[in-house]
Write a structure and sequence with these properties.
- The structure is a homodimer.
- Chain A is of the alpha/beta class.
- The first copy, chain A, has a single domain, classed as Maf protein, CATH 3.90.950.10.
- Chain A is built from seven helices and seven strands; from the N terminus they run E-H-E-H-H-E-E-H-E-E-H-E-H-H.
- Chain A has helices at about 35-40, 55-60, 65-85, 115-125, 165-175, 200-205, 210-220; strands at about 25-30, 45-50, 95-105, 105-110, 130-140, 145-160, 195-200.
- In chain A, strands 1, 2, 3, 4, 5, 6 and 7 form a seven-stranded mixed sheet that branches.
- Chain A is globular.
- The two termini of chain A are about 30 Å apart.
- In chain A, about 50% of the residues are buried.
């Protein structure tokens, strides 16, 4: 995510302007491979388009917003930026924006980026419970123009286990926790060290399927109509 | 699962009798592709070996066992059968057995197998909460002999959403719910229709990573030592 050129990864045999079925193109406004994998496993192979939203500028412009408001605002900014930028290429589309952060003891935590910060995080997280917040916004594009945005937020409690010092060393040395919000995954190596969640597990991976289903329904779309398999 | 020939799917360049690292071979005593995928995503690429345990005979021999006892007994039977059958091929191994069932309003539910039964299940499940029980047993094989079995159970509450009639038709027509315990997934198409869980999400997919980590620790093994990546 963040600043970068657009990434288009839909299969080359699909026309970018005419969805084969007459249904809207599903656009994922996120470079996260985990989000894309969740959607693909759940029957939707999205176009991936990433726009250069300045997340820090959006967040600092929010003043004293609640954590829920922050992730919804960031998801909305990303979805609307991608919808605006690519409206000519995908004139009939739904654009899904996402933002995830871990809320732990008053702090809102994104990616740790460095081994040192990942270790600090895990030292604070181990044996405790955090709240993984995932904001989603879905922009409906019809006839080459935005026809509205709906948004929502999903909070899932995450009960962290307690890795031994050797396990934590091994986990950090893989690099996985550095690049993910909250310094953990549940669908990768981090899954060994998460004792449980209370909420939607797909939201912890990065895209809440039940919330996305409800937002699509708000636009009058049944998610099953968007399935590309089988 | 059930009766069938053994399936060996480890990479051909790995000697079946000498783990390259001096560490035990990890054997998954289950044909479930979802369980194998969870382990692979979590850093372990197991040998898959399936033995012909008569699950109905094991279950009916248990008398009035609790649901927890049933899934632990079935997981133990599967792991011990595979360990006994393949002890010569994998003289230094950990053999992981698994069994999953959905406990809903007093009934213990496995795979529905037919569209009619899947529809009955979902009609009963929609909007309700069930308990997905996952039993695991880990047999340690050392020097070509069993060195003991440890076992445990993990119960995760699953809050089912309410698919529309058209969504339920579409879901059942995919065939996915017919072949899985409880007639749903959270890591596939079913994820749209599960509003949340309370417990370990990997146990719902079929193999609980934190429980498996604890059972391996009971055998004196750190899961991170068994990681094959990175």
């Amino acid at each position: 995510m963040g600043v970068g050129a657009a990434v288009v990864t839909r299969a080359a045999d699909t026309s970018p302007t005419e969805p084969p079925s007459g249904l809207p193109t599903v656009v994922l406004a996120s470079a996260s491979p985990a989000r894309r994998a969740v959607l693909q496993a759940a029957g939707i192979d999205p176009v991936v388009l990433v726009s250069g939203v300045d997340e820090d500028a959006v967040a600092s412009g929010l003043g004293d917003a609640t954590p829920h408001e922050v992730v919804v605002a960031l998801a909305t900014a990303k979805a609307q930026a991608v919808a605006a930028e690519f409206v000519d290429h995908y004139p009939d589309a739904v654009v899904i924006g996402c933002d995830s952060m871990l809320h732990l003891e008053g702090a809102l935590l994104g990616k740790p980026h460095t081994p040192e910060e990942a270790r600090r995080r895990w030292t604070a997280m181990a044996g405790r419970t955090g709240d993984l917040l995932t904001g989603h916004a879905v922009v409906r594009v019809i006839d080459g123009a935005s026809a509205g945005t709906v948004a929502g937020v999903c909070g899932t409690a995450v009960r962290f286990g307690t890795p031994t010092p050797a396990e934590l060393d091994a986990y950090i040395s893989t690099g996985e926790p550095l690049a993910v919000a909250g310094a953990f995954t549940i669908d990768g190596l981090g899954g060994w060290f998460v004792d449980g969640v209370d909420g939607d597990p797909s939201s912890v991976v990065g895209i809440s399927l039940p919330l996305t289903r409800r937002l699509l329904a708000d636009h009058g779309l049944a998610v099953t109509d968007l399935w590309t398999r089988p």
